[in-house]
Amino acid sequence: MESPENQQPTSRRAFGKNSLGLAALAGLGVGSASLPAVASNREVNPADEKPADAKAGRLNQSLCKWCYDKNLTLDELCQNAKQMGLSGIDLLGPKDFDTLKKYGLVCTMVTSHKLTDGLCEPKFWDEAFESLEKSIEAASLAGFRNVICFSGNARGIDRKTGMKNCAEALRKIAPVAEKKNVILNMELLNSRVDHPDYMCDLSAWGIELCKQVASDHFKLLYDIYHMQIMEGDIIRSIQNNHQYFGHYHTGGNPGRHEIDESQEIYYPPIAKAIADTGFNGYIAHEFLPTRDAMTSLSQAVKLCTV
Questions:
Q1: To 5 degrees, how large is the angle CA 70–CA 61–CA 209?
Q2: How high is the pLDDT of residue 50?
């Protein structure tokens, strides 16, 4: 059987042409048995054979290490990222910075406090602030711009109170980020499938939080996979609210696998919508490969090179 990386999916344009042609022949009374053999089920795109080169497009692309490091060291991931024209790697800490810099890459999102123990519950503030301050300082010293943060799980706290608590916490820590020229990015995550009880699970909630904090050093990490599950309408959300989005993550739905024709999110127009806003941050690939990881990553980079 042909390997998955060599299988060529039918493009939408090719399908449309084939369908129209078959319909026309059917109208003339020509049966399918008398049709000539078709050599390929899709148009040949010469770009498919070219190596991935994110720098050929308008978006700064990166990858999230945790998805692809099962069989690759950080050095090997960096080598692959460099070859594909990626800007850096997401969700790393200070111990990894020297390795990144060796390859001319950046940490496109620096890790910080626990996802579940976040800013919506004051009893976790001291621990979160300590972690955030360390991450802000490390990112600043390294010349990196993004540090992640989380609302945390609600644990019975209503959404209005949770927003009030998050806003108060962020107004305390955002000035620290501003002083160090770092941007805090709160990730939008789905609470239906992957992160039950997570507070910041809708873009409207996160956007309102941004308005209340009112700092250019606090934005949202808009995870396309998570927001497809929670609300859909991805392109319109990006077009209307891009000023609040400081970072993007990719991922196929369902399953958070490859961002290809096997799932419901079509990424090229999404990537174009992001680029058309003039976005100068990073879009990081965060999906779980079902085949050779670097083959899948290369495909994703090509799909988002617009």
A1: 100
A2: 85
Q: Which two tokens stand for residue 293?
A: 């990881």
How far apart (Å, rounded) are the C-alpha atoms in residues 219 and 189?
14
Distance CA 165, CA 266 (A): 36
Q: Which of residues 206 and 3 earns the better pLDDT score? A: 206
- The percentage of the chain sitting over the pLDDT mark of 70, rounded to a whole number, equals 84
CB 238 within 8 A of CB 277: yes
Least confident of 42-56, 152-166, 191-205, 263-277: 42-56
- Name the residue type at position 125: W
* Residue in the block written with tokens 């990144």: 100
Residues 6+ apart with CB under 8 A from 159: 199, 205
Peptide bond into 254 cis (omega under 30): yes
Angle of the 125-142 helix axis to the 159-179 helix axis, nearest 10:
30
Q: Is the pLDDT of residue 11 over 70?
A: no
All domains in the chain, ordered by first residue: 8-44 (no CATH), 54-303 (3.20.20.150)
- Specify the length of the chain in residues: 306
Q: Position 2: which residue type?
A: E
In this prediction, residue 48 carries a pLDDT of 56
E strands, the chain, are 60-64, 88-92, 106-110, 146-149, 183-187, 218-223, 245-250, 282-285
Cα Rg, the chain, nearest whole Å: 22
82's CB contacts (< 8 A; 6+ apart) are 103, 104, 105
Q: Rounded distance, CA 185 to CA 180, Å? A: 15
pLDDT in tens, 50-77: 899 999 999 999 999 999 988 899 999 9
The C-alpha atoms of residue 114 and residue 125 are separated, in whole angstroms, by 11
The one-letter code for the residue type at 194 is D
Start-to-end CA span in the chain (Å): 33
